[in-house]
Amino acid sequence: MTTRAEILRMLSDGAFHSGTDLGKRLGITRAAVCKNVRRLTQSGLDVHRVTGRGYKLDAPLTLLNRSRILKHLGDAAADFRDRLHVLDETESTNRHLAELIAHARTMNGMACLAEAQSGGRGRRGRAWVATPYHNLMFSMAWQFPGGPGLVSGLSLAAGLAVLQALEEYGVDAAGLKWPNDVLWDGRKLAGLLADVQGESAGPTQVILGVGVNAYIGREDAERIDQPWVDLRNILGETADRNRLAALLIRHLRRMFQVFTEKGFVPFREEWVSRHLYHGRRVRLIQGDREFLGTVEGIDENGGLIVRLANGKQVFHSGEISVRLEK
Ligand code: BTN
């Protein structure tokens, strides 16, 4: 564990701890404690310092813990003992996993979680803002025998799996926004980014990245340019990210297995029933083109079927953004 993570582990109870006490327990000077706390705040954490009392986290947290995740995985733990990687900080868990699988014998189910990302990526070239040590930044890899075309629909099926994991965790009344956002009360709770690679004849390698807002700190909140919500707002308590990570692993692995055999079709009906924009008027923005229409469904490849003034059109995910027309 890094010094930074050790300090956080001590502060994770949300109580005050003096610099002297932290330093003594870690065998470092008060100045070194101060330097490490500064690095934590620079990375987006809200740590208060009160003269005479010490340091205190704005919100308590539970650190990621590989053994706890494996414990939550129960019977499935054996399959992940060599496949699960928990990191303190990395540029992006998707990128880290891409490097890991380049040297691995088998990639299916290889998974990676990080406490902090220095270059987290979102869809459509955006950055992914996630408060370190408080959010869930997760990636899982899978290889499919066919060409990349066969995996269209995968990112939708993955969104459904993430929604189901969140529901099993205890989140009610969340839903999907095409292609794969998880929304709660119209605000984004989780987002997915699928990096797909492969020759047209196959095989195709997918690295699926998932970001769940467990708690967004005050400074980060101002950097997010869309309506968002976090688990703390919804459930009123600090999230147990280890339990949530295990649920994501279980649901996503199941989804990958079914998708490998049957593609998107077995997911389609439930996906449509969980689509918050089904039957709604939407505006689709694709570069400098805009379309207005009503969402009619999802096709067998995961394309969005929209009735426009001049007939039906199917939109495929990628560089397209969908907004509700009020
Ligand atoms: C989106 O824009 O909705 C997709 C967000 C995906 C974020 C996750 S966090 C873990 C993984 N690593 C990244 O760099 N991005 C994804």
- Oligomeric state of shown chains: single chain
Computed CA radius of gyration, to the nearest angstrom: 21 Å
Write out the strand line-up for the largest beta sheet, numbering strands in chain order: 3-4-5-9-8-7-6
Number of strands: 14
Order of helices and strands: HHHEEHHEHEEHEEEEHHHHEEEEE
Brief digest:
With 326 residues, this protein is an alpha+beta fold.
Describe, in plain words, how this protein is organized in 3D.
The protein is 34% helix and 28% strand. The model has no long low-confidence stretch (mean pLDDT 94). It has a 7-stranded mixed beta sheet with strand order 3-4-5-9-8-7-6, with helices on both faces. Strands 13-12-11-10-14 form a 5-stranded antiparallel beta sheet. It has a two-stranded antiparallel sheet with strand order 1-2. With 326 residues, the protein is an alpha+beta fold. The protein is globular. Helix 2 (19-26) packs across helix 3 (30-42), helix 4 crosses helix 10 (241-262) and helix 7 runs antiparallel to helix 10 (241-262). Bound molecules: biotin. The site of biotin (BTN) has 20 residues, from helix 6, strand 5, strand 8 and strand 9.
